[in-house]
Amino acid sequence: MALEDKWTFTEQSASILPFGLFEKLRHRKKLLDFRISSKDGREVRANRFLLAMRFPRISDNVTAEDRALMEWKRFNADIVEAAVTFAYTGRVEITMTNVANLFLLSINLGCSTLTSGCIEFLRPRLSEDNVETFWFIANATMNSDLMGICVPVIADNFDGFTARPQFHMSTAAEYLASMLKDDRLNHVPEDAKLGAIAKWVEVATTEEGEECQIDCLKNLVESIDLKRVSLEVCVKFCSSNVMMNFPEECRQLIFDEWMVAKKSSRLAARETFKDYVIAYETPSNSPQMLSFRSIFKEDPGVNFNFHMESRQNCAVIFFNGEFAYYAKFCVFKTIFI
């Protein structure tokens, strides 16, 4: 069923506040002792006591004896009117046209109820077409609830969103790390997550200097499951042009952490290997060298896969997490991942 373009949000605690009385006083233009000037030059009048009670962040300003006017130059009169109407009635009409500005104004005013109403309206209406705008707003306002409803939409097209420079320019490292650790991204490959980190490092800028950049990078890398990152992707990341701007010890640290994660993930799975030297050789009559047979009389009962180039009269030996090609005059050694 299609969602309505507009929705009236009603405050749940409306019954404990005398909204009916407030609304009647406003309609009669009674006790309107404070003016708010909007972006388009129009003024909205309200009662300063009510504004102070409903909007905590401006309570000191509106109750100052020598002040009767505030300028909200970022918001048009219709947005100001909607917020003031909510203060008086506990109700507000939210649409996709006004929700972004209402959300921003509610943050400025410290009106958590109106903020929650905007998020409730957006939750079923976020899409690939509009989520980037609200992700940017969530980062700018450091609102984790708004970020939270953006994550599933981003996860559905993770590669597409994280390939956009604007996405990374509007994303702080801590919030990217939080998103990468979100359970709703479990289906996203760790290789793709490391790729997103690489893109963030390339695009994002920090004003705190190199030391902060290094700390941000470390925190981001720690937010993904390194043992699920392929060797190819890790090497590509550590040797990328952008990573060359970081100190050598930083690149080495990341690669070392990847190696530690890989090693720890193999310990349990390969516990049975520790007492074995497993050797396989290619049949001398097999030109393709694609089949192998154990050179032991007994099969150690351990299964593993590897790829090797065709080498005549070679044996493949697996021992202590590595395998090697042994020929008559030379040894070709490869790390087993």
UniProtKB/TrEMBL annotation:
Name the UniProt key words of this record, in alphabetical order.
Answer: Kelch repeat, Repeat
Coiled coil region boundaries: none
- Entry keyword ATP-binding: no
One Pfam family, short name = BACK
Query: Is-annotated flag, keyword Metal-binding?
Result: no
InterPro entries membership: BACK, BTB/POZ_dom, SKP1/BTB/POZ_sf
Domain BTB: from-to ranges: 32-96
The protein's name is: BTB domain-containing protein
Native source species = Mesocestoides corti (Flatworm)
